[in-house]
Amino acid sequence: MSVGITSHVLDVSNGRPAVGVRIDLFRLEGGAVEMLRSDVTNTDGRLPGPMLSGDDFTKGTYELLFHVGDYFRGKGVELPEPAFLDQVPIRFGVADNTSHYHVPLLIAPWGYNTYRGS
């Protein structure tokens, strides 16, 4: 098992992996917000590797920002303006930086779900 932060996205409205979803990773510390990385999901709806690992993976508060509105627009889904869900932020704490934090997102144009996966 790897150590760090990973993610994947599933489009439950189509029952398929969500290909091409941009995910941004931020670290939040003392009121400051630092963008650490941005990546895009592959054909399996997964990122090509950990968003954060090694010495950069420290205890603290992080946020993944999923750009789901762009994904659905790219699939030809007609969304209202503004879209009900355009960007989905998931803020979570890392208490043990020797563990794996997998943060998946299940999406549809009108809802989402997340959990700490394995």
From TrEMBL:
SUPFAM superfamilies assigned to the protein according to its UniProt record, in alphabetical order: Transthyretin (synonym: prealbumin)
Keywords: Hydrolase, Purine metabolism
EC numbers: 3.5.2.17
Catalytic reactions of this protein: 5-hydroxyisourate + H2O = 5-hydroxy-2-oxo-4-ureido-2,5-dihydro-1H-imidazole-5-carboxylate + H(+)
PROSITE patterns named among the record's database cross-references: TRANSTHYRETIN_1
UniProt xrefs under InterPro entries: Hydroxyisourate_hydrolase, Thyroxine_BS, Transthyretin/HIU_hydrolase_d, Transthyretin/HIU_hydrolase_sf
Domain Transthyretin/hydroxyisourate hydrolase per the UniProt entry, residue ranges: 5-117
Molecular function via GO: hydroxyisourate hydrolase activity
CDD domains, per database record: TLP_HIUase
Assembly behavior: Homotetramer.
Entry function: Catalyzes the hydrolysis of 5-hydroxyisourate (HIU) to 2-oxo-4-hydroxy-4-carboxy-5-ureidoimidazoline (OHCU).
Family: Belongs to the transthyretin family. 5-hydroxyisourate hydrolase subfamily.
Name of the molecule in the record: 5-hydroxyisourate hydrolase
